Amino acid sequence: MPKPQGNGEDTSSSLVAAAADSFTFGPSVASNSMHRLPTPMKKKMPGQGFPSGRAHAVHLPRPSAPATSLPGSPTRSRYCMADVMAEARQDFQKARGLHPPPRLSAPQPHMSQSYHPPHPATAPAAPYRPFPIVSFNHMSKEVLDYELSRDFYCGVLGFIEIPRPAFENEGVWLYGFGLSLHLIKSRYPEKRLLLKGRRIEHFEEALPNVDHMAFITSNLNEVEKQLREHNVFYKRFGSHKTNIHQIFLFDPDGNVIEISNCAPPVGETTCPRVVGMGGPASPQSRL
Q1: Across residues 46-72, what is the average pLDDT?
Q2: Which of 9, 222, 258, 268 does the annotation list as catalytic?
Q3: 147: annotated active-site residue
Q4: Does residue 76 form part of some domain?
Q5: Region entry Disordered: which residue ranges (predicted)?
Q6: How far is the CA of 121 from the CAs of 91, 117, 126, in angstroms?
Q7: 226: domain range?
Q8: What pLDDT, on a 0 to 100 scale, did the predictor assign at position 84?
Q9: What's the CATH number where 267 sits?
């Protein structure tokens, strides 16, 4: 760093400029004190230079300063961000009247210090409060053509259309079998078409293991008969181990619907007996 001249002129600006290109700290500057306020410069008398030849007030490190010394260069101090953050956090919490977090005994380079609140398990358990839900309200489905979907749910499955508020987005409200169904026009039809194609392609080979809604019927064979009459694509599956027989089908937008002959009681995995078939079962699916 250039030594200031003693010609009586103000050399503070030149010192700042010189310090901007220097990352060297003298032996009197500790490695963990770089975040502290600089030592004030002594007043310069006319015709004199700075007493020590150093101006600690202008030794400003750059954030991009190298962390280690280079061959042939003066010793460089390591900028310990852990110390800076820990002391700043202590000052902030003291100002708020809080206790500072425990500080590590020996901060290491590249090691962050943070305060972690007590584990929830150590906190006293709050009394149980049931969530204030009283009933299921409705289900929404994203559709490409809400009028086509309305015709399917009403004309094939037996839903009815009910009044709907004048929302900005287009759609219809349906009701049937104790369920309110809201059909909403998709804002991203290209993505919806892609999803529909993938589901139908997979459905041709395996069960549609995706999100779906399910209904119970008292006559599964009649359901199958009417699906054939409406030319609806479906697949039928049955298990003698569980006594559950199912029909899976798509709505016009690729949403999966399940219709089964029974549902196991809560806590059980099988139906007690085969019910809800309504007559001879069809051995083949409508493909």
Answers
A1: 47
A2: 258
A3: no
A4: yes
A5: 25-50, 96-122
A6: 29, 11, 11
A7: 195-287
A8: 59
A9: 3.10.180
